[in-house]
Fold this sequence. Notes:
Blueprint: H1 8-18, E1 31-42, E2 46-57, H2 60-80, E3 89-90, E4 94-95, H3 101-116, E5 131-142, H4 148-164, H5 178-191, E6 208-214, H6 217-241, E7 246-254, H7 256-259, H8 261-265, H9 267-279, E8 294-297, E9 303-315
Antiparallel strand pairs: 1-9, 2-5, 2-6, 3-5, 4-5, 6-8, 7-9
Helix pairs in contact: 3-5
Amino acid sequence: MRSFPRTAPAVIFLATFLFPTSVGAQTETATVTGHGIVELDRAPESVRVQVDVLAKGKDVKEALARLKERREAAQGHLERLGASAASFTITRAVIGDEKSERQKQMEMMMGGRVINQGKPAAQKPKQAPLILVSATLKAEIPLKASSPEELMILSHELEEKLKAADLGGLKALKQLSPQDEESAEETPQMMGINVFGMGGEPKRGEPTFTYVSKLSEEAQAKATAQAFQSAKQDAARLARAAGSELGTVHRIEDTSVLAGAAEESSPTGALASFYRSMFQGETTGPKSTPHGGEAVGTQPGKVSYRVAISATFSLKK
């Protein structure tokens, strides 16, 4: 009589469990998805200043010492304009290059054209290039204005003062080398466009301004609830068009980050995104717009807080 190994019953049971002889028909639940967006406009309460502080030296030690002096001077200037010490953040210093990433990319793209035009190759400087170090400084300055007109005047004067203060240390840097000057003059002309001002992007070392209004947790929760109700109404409209009604909630998703991609989908937005990526070292793709409990904007008028909700419901049979 033939015998089976002891493990046979376990194997047979496992096979029966994983591969049943008959499988019941599975029906998929019909669903419908609606989308809702709520955008709150508020007056800014403060302006967030961000700037790359730059310094050069014949070696890293000297460059870092100059960077420290430049950073302390920038912090002192911001404090005199109303920035609180608690609002300051500074990144670690990093070693850069005599040329920015934008300049390198432009030279790579246009280097061949210079040769084709029969111009002699630029001579490399005999002296060793200075070492560039940088760190990003952020601070927040409160805005106190009783009317939109007063806010506009206040913010304009503040921006002009900060630009004139040379927080990034651009004036202290040495002039471009002859090779860099030639590249800077020729490349925009060969491209036929002013790439340095594309999209209104500032040069490295110039300050950028973000106007901010902070929202309470209650205000954030209310905006989210309103966005959900809007998404539900949108889904109900689609369900009625299909001759059905909404059932229970199947899935809810916060799509606020994805909503920011709409700006990049337009021809103007896509073109600006391309040049930011090519000439300023930024990554292409939709800008991330996480909530953070803040309404933000680049202008001193109204700042916006956006919540986008995607809600999926089952359909009643």
